[in-house]
Amino acid sequence: MTTRAMYYEQPYLQTLEVKVLALGEEGVILDQTICYPEGGGQPGDRGVLGGCPLLDTVKDDKKQIFHKVKDPSFSVGDQVTLTLDWPHRYHYMRMHTSQHIASGVLYSQFKIGTVSVHQGEKLLTIETDASYLEESRCYQIEDAVNKAIGEAHAVHYEVHTHKEAEALGLRRSIKVQGDGIRLVVVDDIDTIACGGLHTANTSEVGLFQYVSQEKLRGHIRLIFSVGIEALAEIRENRRIVASLCSLYSAQRETLVEVAEASLRQASQDRSLLQRKEQRLAEVLLASLVQTAEMKDGIPLVFWEVPEDLDFKQVSQAFASFPDLALCAAKEEGDRLLWLVALGGKAALFLDFNQVRSSLLAPIEGKGGGRPPVWQGAGKGKAAEFFKSFRNFL
Q1: DSSP conformation letters of 218-284
Q2: I need a surface site. Which of 69, 79, 376, 381 has the fewest CB within 10 A?
Q3: Contact 20, 76 (CB under 8 A)
């Protein structure tokens, strides 16, 4: 079955009366359609068909167009109304057009080729053949594309034989075989073989904004936002800057300087706090050692660690004692953090790896380590773990 591609003939048509030719697992086949099927880096159209949600439009290897409809209520032979999700379609028409402008500008003005492209809901990416691009050059590209957009170049289509198209010296080789090569022409900017949909004029793109870049397969991939999405991003960035200015009590011009100073101060404060917490851990452990019961002249310490200390600080405090058996636990909601440390002669009290399973069974504990410190997590109460540890001494 052949479906007439009305999206090529009238790309701005948003509603069409169509006839249902077939219904199947692959989708609905129509006699004609205004829905562009996924391809060329552009997603398929969506909308409403016969009052039912149209989720996607695809094309198989035989170029048959299928409309993916949720719970179709119509039958073969019915005449139904097809309505596009126009904002979705128009977004990709604008983005696709901007990609042609950008790739044309990259090639003609900067001698940079396009390797691949992807059009997303938010961002356009263009993988270039460049291995390095300074950010200043990226902004030059952005300026050149916006200039071309503002110059309102017409966008139209031409159909050529394969030989004729190749003779035009296009910036990219033609991937399809046979004649009837569809060329997209952006007047004075770019001519390339393409099966996608585009705006009738570059001015419809609106705004083109460089976002960032990344390295991919040795190439630079440029990331852009286009049209309404570009404007939305600018407004969101403005909102973020305003919020940060309020947070730091700074003017926009001094925001970075003030924020950097604040981060330096926070880092210094955090370092000081960590030193104080470490000193607290050492003092607390020393106090527990002084009052601990003894085994063979070695202190046995059972320590329920307070909330404001962590096990890293506990381990560092333990390291200052040459001979010590330490069993520590910390309750965090339903979790029980545990730590066993056997320093010096205390290592002779038990082989932790040998008794691990039995020792941790009462708290369903898991974890590990290496002499002289082992730690992990389980559940239950600290007293249960202390009791289990004492039983093995």
Answers
A1: TEEEEEEEEHHHHHHHHHHHHHHHHHHHHHHT--GGGHHHHHHHHHHHHHHHHHHHHHHHHHHHHHH
A2: 79
A3: yes
